[in-house]
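Example record

One chain of 185 residues, shown exactly as stored in the release files.
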Amino acid sequence: MAATADPLQRGFAAPDFSLPGIDGRSYTLADVRGPKGTLVMFICNHCPYVQAVADRIKRDTDELRALGVHAVAISSNDVSAYPEDSFDNMKLFAARHGFGFPYLYDESQDVAKAYGAVCTPDFFGFNTDLKLQYRGQLDASRKQAAAPDVRRDLFEAMKQIAATSIGPDEQYPSIGCSIKWKEAA
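Predicted structure tokens for this chain:
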């Protein structure tokens, strides 16, 4: 288990990227940017923390899109050590959960490193200027989904960012599986 222990670096500029998506397209940050905010999520297929909230991620990103906040998910795990996270399995996972956002593969792991991602899920909420305003949990779920009426931390934060460009002062770290880094050659 890992947690986003780093304090929020409000104003951190979203690093650009160009990554392949499961739909056969390549995406950059500009391609996924929303008019009112952008949510960059580091997830993977095998992590029980992601599996517990995948349907909530879909729900929240669908609702955020209507508010002008666009989302992208990135998998950066070492697939040679974790074949469940392979590109083909990413397609199956996204289809099973009905993802309505691009799901990208960061084979080099450079994008995860540029963002400072440490776990899955790891959420980065940016305002219209692509400055970080939220780095926290989806909700109180862990390896099992929390109660249906639990506070939707990520959704409420991104809703606030869409309206004001500023994220909440109180943020709780995301907890999940550590990103599975490749061994140094």
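Notes: DSSP finds five helices and ten strands in the chain.
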